[in-house]
Amino acid sequence: MRYLHNFGAYFLMVIEMFRKPTKWSVMKKLILKDIDDLVIGSIGIVSFIAFFVGGVITIQTALNIDNPLIPKSLVGFATRQSIVLEFAPTFISIIMAGKVGSYITSTIGTMRVTEQIDALEVMGINSINYLVFPKMIALTLYPFVISIAMFLGIFGGLTACVLGGYATSEDFITGVQLDFIPFHIIYAFLKTFVFAFILATVPSFYGYYMKGGALEVGQASTTSFVWTSVAIILLNYILTQLLLS
Amino acid sequence: MIEVKDLHKSFGENHILKGVTTTFEAGKTNLIIGQSGSGKTVFLKCLLGLFNYEQGSIAYDGKVFAKLSEAEKREMRAKIGMVFQGSALFDSMTIAENVMFPLRMFTNQSKSEMQDRVDFVLNRVNLSDAHNKMPSEASGGMQKRVAIARAIVNNPKYLFCDEPNSGLDPRTSIVIDNLIKEITEEYNITTVINSHDMNSVMEIGEKIVFLQLGLKEWEGTRHDIFKTENEAVTNFVYSSNLFKKVRRVYLENDASK
Asked: Distance of CA B139 to CAs A17, B6, B87, B101, B127, Å?
């Protein structure tokens, strides 16, 4: 019953987010701040993870291909497919649910605990629009982070492939270019946009509606991470079924 | 003036306010007092429109808040200033930005006009050199004064304060009390203070409403509170020996006049 209540409350929050908009001059600054906090601030960790996981994917693929009839370029092909279709959009989004999601829940939750949200409401400001909407707009730039992850993941794979002697750079690049289907990029970015919306709204929901003190802020951050990840995994399955089958 | 009639508020089975009726006059410091759990905070949040109530009415200068349109409610809220118990300053903004916030949200003033107004109110609360500090760098008393500055920056008609002295030393408490009283008189604001602090009651309570178990048990001025025979009020206000002595001296002086 509680899950059903939360589900309804979440959708009401999403509707409320578009009502009674905050003055544009104020909103503009909030969006720029959130772009800095949520998008620019995530590029470092995403780049680091993408580069090394790309390398690991390549090594594991190469080590599992021991049939001499299979061309070496398959390593590059498999790396590209893994990174573009799943690793960059989905795996990075789950990492972002931990990094960005817990940041959003804890900042909004702390504002709730310290009555800052009440202060906004008393002033007649739509606090959901003020707090959540700029995060959603900022995260429309999230696909930019994912493109960096895609590029660095493949580059990490190339580096690991060449340094480990699994294939030549020519073979790897040939594989990366092999059977390229542009729709896969569209699929990946469509997923990314949906995940960006989830990343902005689900953690905000858990922060906004939390009750209690510092301990509950921590608990809300954990719950938010769990449910953001669940939502991403479920939507990933549904979108893959809808778009690729 | 704020008129409250027969206000009822429940949370599920828990009936918190059981028909409170009172009036808060303009230009006066009105205090709501009562024990923990008496319904003070719920009452204040109903006055602020943060809680919906089941029965009764709250009228601001004759306008019943619940009957106003969304636009009128927004307009009304711009006339309300609130000082929260924990100050509720926005941690991501400097003190000056906190004070400027209502101006940025609700006025079309130029940056220099807003800056002048911020300088004026910060000067009014004796914080003329704290503009660029972050709230976390300010003491409790300073944070309360910033909260007062933010509450009055937009020239409110109504000022609400929830426990403005909590966590402050006696000297700072007096400074805050006097500041609220001066501002109330200076700008003819209707001020409603939710307080546990008996010093505030004695010093600035021009009208005191005593709540008990969700009902208005007593109301009067700070002079009346010395003379009242209401047992619930005397048990609450004169629970400490110090205040018992203060009352005895007051009554003796009053009798000798």
From this structure: 35, 40, 11, 21, 12
Please report which helix (H) or strand (E) contains residue A127, including its range.
helix A127-138
Provide the residue range defining the domain that includes B10.
1-71+158-229
Q: Do A33 and B92 touch (CB under 8 A)?
A: yes
Whether B120 contacts chain A with CB within 8 A: no
Is B61 within the bounds of a domain?
yes
If one counts the domains in chain B, the total is: 2
* ipTM reported for the complex, 2 dp: 0.82
Over residues A83-104, the pLDDT tens digits come to 999 999 999 999 999 999 999 9
> Which residues in chain A touch residue B105, judged by CB atoms under 8 angstroms apart?
22-23, 26, 123, 125
Interchain contact A16–B (C-beta under 8 A): no
Residue B43's CATH number = 3.40.50.300
| Pair B134, B195 in one domain | no
Q: Is B5 on the interface with A (CB under 8 A)?
A: no
Nearest to B77 among A25, A26, A124 (CB): A124
**B84 reaches A (C-beta below 8 A):** yes
List strands edge to edge, sheet with B190-194: B80-83, B158-162, B190-194, B29-34, B207-212, B215-220
**pLDDT, tens digit, for every residue of A142-200?**
999 999 999 999 999 999 999 999 999 999 999 999 999 999 999 999 999 999 999 99
Q: What gap in Å lies between CA A112 and CA A201, rounded to an integer? A: 16
pLDDT in tens, A37-86: 999 999 999 999 999 999 999 999 999 887 888 888 999 999 999 999 99
The answer to whether residue B245 sits within a structural domain is no
Residues B67 and B93 both lie in one domain: no
Q: Which of B155, B173, B199 is a domain's end point?
A: B155
